[in-house]
Design a protein that fits this description.
The chain is an all-alpha fold. The protein is built from 9 helices and no strands. It has one domain: Four Helix Bundle (Hemerythrin (Met), subunit A), CATH 1.20.120. It has helices at 2-7, 11-26, 35-68, 72-75, 77-92, 99-130, 133-151, 155-165, 170-193. It binds fe (ii) ion (2 copies).
Length: 194
């Protein structure tokens, strides 16, 4: 088990991958997309952000607090997640046929992009300077384990939303499904070995 943990991607790379996945999905949301596609894209973004925020709060931020307790970016990170959760709830309650749907998604993404910039320019480089590669991989393995628990019940819905949301773009489809396929593969492997 220890060797497997060492082979895991690092937690910092996983966090960067999650951020890229949300941004790639957001870039598919065009003004003239069908409401069905807009809803699928927004659902993909909302679910991915919720899972990502939980993983950071349970695994990455506690680790970062051990060496970065008074870092302002870390101190405001959970309140910023909570503000995103508030916008996610508002977005989910708004039909994709409504003009306000796009405005809410843009507001959410403005907050996300600021938050992600802080994490990628402050918290992740700090963690990579302070923690060993093995420790970063161990935390990565912990994150994968917890992600499987969180994704498990939603795996089918996540795959459908990704397929519908990326239906107009083959290049983006390839990029967008990577996360879903990786999660599904891991789930299948886990089921076979259980
Ligand atoms: Fe975050
Ligand atoms: Fe993040």
């Amino acid at each position: 088990m220890f060797a497997l943990k060492k082979l895991s991607p690092t937690i910092t790379d996983m966090i960067r991958f999650d951020h890229s996945h949300v941004l790639v999905t957001f870039h598919q949301y065009t003004i003239d997309a069908k409401p069905k596609v807009k809803k699928a894209l927004a659902d993909t973004i909302c679910n991915a952000l919720e899972i990502h925020a939980t993983l950071e709060e349970e695994i990455f931020y506690p680790a970062a607090r051990t060496f970065d307790a008074n870092e302002p970016v870390l101190l405001k990170s959970v309140p910023e997640h909570n503000e995103m959760r508030r916008l996610i709830a508002e977005l989910r309650a708004t039909p994709a046929t409504d003009l306000h749907h796009g405005q809410l998604l843009h507001q959410l993404m403005r907050e996300v992009i600021h938050h992600v910039a802080d994490e990628e320019t402050v918290l992740l480089p700090h963690a990579e300077r302070v923690l060993s590669k093995d420790r970063l991989s161990e935390l990565g393995a912990d994150m994968t384990k917890r992600r499987l628990e969180l994704v498990g019940p939603k795996a089918g819905k996540l795959a459908i939303d990704t397929a519908v949301g990326f239906s107009g773009s083959t290049t983006a489809l390839v990029l967008g499904i990577v996360g879903t396929v990786a999660a599904a593969t891991l789930l299948t492997r886990k089921a076979k070995t259980a």
